[in-house]
UniProtKB/TrEMBL annotation, chains A, B:
It comes from Mycobacterium paraseoulense. This is Flavin-nucleotide-binding protein. Gene3D superfamilies: Electron Transport, Fmn-binding Protein, Chain A (2.30.110.10). InterPro entries: Pyridox_Oxase-rel (IPR024747), Split_barrel_FMN-bd (IPR012349). Residues 199-220 are annotated as: Disordered.
Amino acid sequence: MDTEYRRTARTTPTRYRERARYDRETVHQILDESTICHLGYLSAGRPVVLPTTHARLGETLYLHGSTGSGPLLAAAAAPSGLPVCVTVTLVDGLVLARAAMHHSVNFRSVVVLGDARVVDDGAEKLRALAGLLDHLAPGRAADCRPPNPRELAATGVLALDLVEVSAKVRTGDPVDDPEDCALPHWAGVVPVSVTAGAPVPAGDLASGTPMPTYLRERRR
Amino acid sequence: MDTEYRRTARTTPTRYRERARYDRETVHQILDESTICHLGYLSAGRPVVLPTTHARLGETLYLHGSTGSGPLLAAAAAPSGLPVCVTVTLVDGLVLARAAMHHSVNFRSVVVLGDARVVDDGAEKLRALAGLLDHLAPGRAADCRPPNPRELAATGVLALDLVEVSAKVRTGDPVDDPEDCALPHWAGVVPVSVTAGAPVPAGDLASGTPMPTYLRERRR
């Protein structure tokens, strides 16, 4: 398998081309680090963007939802696949330049274009749902009550193959025009990070229930 | 003005209706707290979702981009407005239930539907661009070199009135079925937060340039 996704007209940016990345490693890291993605699809001909969790298993991205939810209903009505765009964005910093128009954000994002299919195969569906749990907390899928037939029937899983994919990455300092660098304004980066705090037991958790290792050792 | 946005069929969820919020205060707080939004629009009939910064000024959401970027080109070709969906999501926690299918995420999100218009009025455009800077760091617009005519000509601003708007908020513990509460699995919430670190001066910043008050006092 190529180490890079093949670029297409749609995944080639018109500006800031130096920020584009196509290597699978970068794309996978961004997808895996973000808790959520934003799913874009068409509803009655108009764009709708919804936040949802995701899981990457190899070269497939899985999403899930109630079979009565908008995206799953739309997918069920599109037997040849639902046109979607799934975007994941991590914000790493606020970039303050001397010039107003050179302000920016340090970020890492991935855009996946394609036609999502409803997962019909029972084994693939179970793998995807386990992947969604392990995406939230690696190891969790093996440490909870598995879905029962009623729950499985009420839940739909979408699969989107990672074929038309690109990442964008901006890092580092502001880039001001040379003639602006003598201006008196402060310039630099405010780092932004996402952190996970100490897990808080549910109010109805039996006292003495140990916190699992995969949570104690978790770092984000 | 009503304290709530008027709900429509498109902003009334089919599930978890108790999570929906329509009050302007909640919507404004979520929009203002998030550094970025995700903009959904149609490109050649397919959905595209891009991350971008935003600013809310009163009841209008402003976005900006190069006049050569996808969304601005699409908006320029849609004189009666570009159908968009702008979504903002803040992740507050990972919700681990005893049952696989009751896992969730604590989050606050806003979905804005509407037709975005290109801002032609020069004064409104300047206000919007200042708003985008102050959204990154309140006070910044007054402390940088303003846009010059060339930069203004190369930049487009989109305005989206906050009319068809809804928020969704999930908070608190996992909700397990009663018969699952005796299972031995740990349950609870892993809090997630976004923090801004100490500002890092640009490598080419003249030594002795003071860090502005609005950055020193910034907390996220």
